[in-house]
């Protein structure tokens, strides 16, 4: 028991050194877990693959997830092509007679898919219901996953405290999504902007890995769910004021209420802070919306789009809800962010909902745009500016997630 007290005291001391000196409230002291926990994340790399190459730098085990049968490595080069044949997985010339396998390199060695995309952990392959394609999933430890995220979501040359804040936010977000949705599907998160961008080892750098290591096990919690993790959203440029999560995603957390952000306007390029006008064919917009939201098909065709709700801030108006007028005479409603990503899934042209939407006879205009992303939670360019001006990671996180408490998981 004496040894446990020493370890706990040491962990708290290291945490205080990380957040900086000065008086601390009780809320700033992390909860120390009594035992170290291993969290694994299942990352969906490819949803509908018809073929895939796998290469390991070491021998690897092939595990049939139905029978838990384990066989040795195949092939001297540790390279194999994966495909589907007769509704089972084909590894090279060998039919596994299995629909669900895991390829696990021995000795925790990395592996590569499609020749040059390197990952840690193991590779899980599951044939989809169509019997012709398969899902490609990377099973990876939480910390290794975060290393692949931070380097993909924030430039490695940015200030260290901003990188640390990004690491804590990303770790918090993935655990929330895993706990809420992972039990009902074969994977926890996608490797794209649908969740967090994850590129595996090929994106890692020493600076971003250092930021992850310096914050290992640290997550943000909210009093609203008994000091458990919440969806710590973040976006590139909020445009001057972050948005409450309830207005964008429908979930309400005090730690995700909007705050005035004076920071991002200082270091964001004008071309990113103010985005160029975008124009879309009205029929294309209508078809895209009705295809994605079948409940709106009673509109027949969307004739006009009007703003239903907006968040008005000083110098900024963010559309949170839109009214759709159909040729059938009926109306429907859609969240602003849902419209944006339906019309422009990449988010590269309609960069935010901080814009004016105009319905013309044949086109829909998105003009006077400001900011980049959904605007909820941490503003990445704002975090960078805060770090530049001397704020540490905890101060950045406290600013963008008001009322949070940091918890140390392990």
Key descriptive features of the protein:
single chain; 410 residues; alpha+beta; 3 domains; 11 helices; globular; disordered N terminus
Let me know the largest β-sheet: 7 strands, mixed
How would you name the oligomeric state of the polypeptide chains in this document?
single chain
Q: Output the strand order for the largest sheet.
A: 4-3-8-11-12-1-13
The number of E-state strands comes to 26
Shape: globular
Q: Could you report the average pLDDT, rounded to the nearest whole number?
A: 89
Radius of gyration: 24 Å
Structural class: alpha+beta
Count of all domains = 3
Residue ranges: pLDDT <50 for 5 or more in a row? 1-37
Brief overview, please?
The chain is α+β, with helices and mostly antiparallel strands and 410 residues long. The chain is built from eleven helices and 26 strands.
Can you tell me about this structure?
By secondary structure, the chain is of the alpha+beta class. The protein has three domains: about 80 residues, no CATH class; about 160 residues, no CATH class; about 100 residues, no CATH class. Helix content is about 25%, strand content about 30%. The chain is built from eleven helices and 26 strands. Strands 4-3-8-11-12-1-13 form a seven-stranded mixed beta sheet. Strands 7-6-5-2-9-10 form a six-stranded antiparallel beta sheet, with no helix packed on it. α2 packs across α3, α2 crosses α4 and α3 packs antiparallel against α10. The longest helix has 22 residues. The relative contact order is 0.13.
């Amino acid at each position: 028991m004496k040894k446990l007290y020493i370890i706990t005291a040491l962990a708290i001391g290291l945490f205080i050194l990380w957040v900086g000196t000065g008086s601390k409230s009780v809320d700033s002291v992390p909860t120390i877990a009594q035992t170290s926990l291993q969290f694994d994340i299942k990352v969906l790399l490819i949803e509908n693959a018809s073929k895939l190459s796998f290469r390991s730098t070491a021998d690897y085990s092939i595990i049939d997830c139905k029978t838990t049968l384990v066989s040795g490595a195949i092939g001297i080069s540790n390279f194999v092509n994966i495909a589907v044949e007769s509704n089972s997985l084909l590894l090279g010339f060998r039919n596994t007679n299995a629909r669900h396998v895991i390829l696990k390199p021995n000795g925790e060695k990395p592996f590569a898919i499609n020749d040059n995309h390197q990952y840690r952990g193991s590779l899980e392959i599951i044939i989809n219901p169509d019997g012709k394609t398969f899902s490609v999933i990377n099973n990876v430890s939480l910390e290794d996953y975060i290393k692949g995220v931070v380097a993909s979501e924030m430039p490695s040359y940015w200030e260290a405290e901003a990188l640390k804040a990004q690491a804590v936010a990303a770790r918090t977000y993935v655990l929330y999504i895993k706990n809420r949705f992972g039990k009902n599907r074969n994977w926890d998160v996608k490797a794209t902007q649908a969740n967090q961008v994850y590129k595996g080892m090929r994106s890692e750098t020493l600076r971003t890995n250092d930021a992850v290591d310096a914050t290992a096990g640290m997550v943000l919690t909210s009093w609203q769910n008994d000091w458990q993790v919440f969806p710590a959203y973040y976006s590139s440029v909020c445009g001057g004021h972050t948005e409450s999560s309830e207005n964008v995603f429908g979930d309400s957390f005090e730690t995700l209420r909007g705050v005035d952000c004076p920071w991002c306007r200082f270091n964001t390029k004008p071309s990113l802070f103010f985005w160029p006008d975008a124009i879309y064919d009205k029929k294309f917009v209508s078809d895209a919306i009705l295809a994605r939201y079948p409940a709106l098909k009673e509109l027949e065709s969307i004739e006009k789009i009007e703003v239903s709700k907006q968040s008005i801030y000083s110098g900024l108006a963010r559309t949170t809800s839109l009214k759709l007028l159909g040729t059938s005479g009926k109306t429907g409603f859609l969240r602003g962010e849902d419209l944006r990503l339906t019309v422009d899934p990449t988010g590269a042209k309609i960069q935010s909902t901080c814009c004016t939407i105009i319905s013309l006879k044949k086109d829909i205009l998105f003009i006077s745009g400001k900011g980049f992303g959904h605007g909820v939670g941490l503003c990445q360019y704002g975090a960078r500016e805060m770090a530049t001006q001397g704020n540490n990671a905890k101060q950045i996180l406290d600013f963008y997630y008001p009322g949070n408490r940091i918890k140390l998981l392990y």
